[in-house]
Each structure stands twice: as C-alpha cells, then as structure tokens.
Design the sequence.
C-alpha cells in the first residue's frame, strides 16, 4: 500500500528565513507521481508541482525548490527567503497511476507559520 | 477558464437529514474525484470516476454515502441519513485521463451536522 509521511506537523520561522518541508513516501510501484499542494487559511487546495518517478531532476520555481531523491524515497520542498504570504498548510501527495487516472494519497500536512 | 465549482460552500443540517453536495468539473476533464478532509483523518479519497463511470469507491465510509455522475459536467455526493461524524470539508477535484495529469480542486463544501 502507498503511504506519505510528513513528520513535521508545524514549523514556525521568521520572515526571510529559508525553510524545508520534508516528505517521505512508500510505494511498491516503479512508476508513480509525487505532488505538493498548498492550503492557505482560506481553505482551497492549490497545486504547486508534480514529479514523476523517472525524473529526479531538482526543480526551482522562484523562491520554491524541490529535491526528489529516490534513494531515500523523499520529495522535500524548500522555500527560500520566506514571506508571510507563504503561511499555509502544505501537503505532499502520491499517485501510483498518475493523478489523471487514480486518486491521490496525501500526507497529514505541515502547517507553516511565517512570522513577520 | 472556470475552475472546479462546488455548491453549496457551507451546509449546516441536523442529524438524520439528507445532504447533497454538488460538483461541476473543469470543462474537458474526464476524471472526477471526491475527497473528505477532517482533523483526525486528514485528506482521504472517497470515490472517483473516469468518463462518468465509478472506478473505486472503497473510500466511501458506509452505505449512507452515495455518489453519482450522470454526465461529464455534473456529480453529486449524497449522505442519507447524515450524522455528526460526517462533519468535514468535502472537496471535489477533476483532471484529464492523461497519465500524470494534475488534479485541480474546487473550493470545498464545509458540512456541519448538528
């Protein structure tokens, strides 16, 4: 069975600090897809990134970066120079058949608090 | 383009009443998913449809829950009779059937059963 673990329940940092959110996954499939979603205080779920199991290249998008390591089954998310607007709950998710054909298994989420 | 639309956004009802949640997926998407979010259990998949056909309903908690997708642009999730433990935020998401396509979520329906 697939499983996603986000061990950090809550992280609090001061604005402009860098912060890394951890995600560890379990799956028996060789083909799978990993996702990160953001849930701001307003409650909606906002897609951030998806990565397939064959692409271990790290990705950077502005202040956001993602580190995918199959050897440790991890897909960590780093925010550089954090801002108050980054305060949200962040979810890591896994799909074994691709998000378009199967449901997502979510981690419990990490509540990120950015203090001014 | 319009995103996933859910209605109502908030629902307060009394135990024993029937509740119907509605979802309109993004036009052109042919996969639709229903999730439930609670503090205790987090985000969990209830059921999903491909091309309007239910594929996996193993996440539906019990027979009081049912879901339908009569056409490509509309789905309902019904709870009858409702119980206080059904109180949660219910999300609908849609995607295309292409491998690795992203699921886009609606704003959710916050259900409170008194």
Sequence:
């Amino acid at each position: 069975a697939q499983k996603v673990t986000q061990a950090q329940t809550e992280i609090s940092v001061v604005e402009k600090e860098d912060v890394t959110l951890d995600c560890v996954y379990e799956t028996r499939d060789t083909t799978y897809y990993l996702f990160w979603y953001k849930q701001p205080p307003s409650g909606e779920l906002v897609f951030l990134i998806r990565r397939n199991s064959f692409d271990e290249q790290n990705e950077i998008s502005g202040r956001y970066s993602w580190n995918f390591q199959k050897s440790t089954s991890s897909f960590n998310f780093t925010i550089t120079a954090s801002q108050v607007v980054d305060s949200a709950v962040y979810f890591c998710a896994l799909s074994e058949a691709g998000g378009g054909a199967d449901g997502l298994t979510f981690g419990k989420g990490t509540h990120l608090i950015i203090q001014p | 383009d319009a995103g996933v639309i859910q209605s109502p956004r908030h629902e307060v009802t009394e135990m024993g009443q029937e509740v119907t949640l509605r979802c309109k997926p993004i036009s052109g998407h042919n996969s639709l998913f229903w999730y439930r979010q609670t503090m205790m259990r987090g985000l969990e998949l209830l059921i999903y449809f491909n091309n309007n056909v239910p594929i996996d309903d193993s996440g539906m908690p019990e027979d009081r829950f049912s879901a339908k997708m009569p056409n490509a642009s509309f789905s309902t999730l019904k709870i009858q009779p409702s119980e206080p433990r059904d109180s949660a935020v219910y999300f609908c998401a849609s995607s295309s059937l292409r491998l690795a396509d992203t699921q886009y979520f609606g704003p959710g329906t916050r259900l409170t059963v008194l």
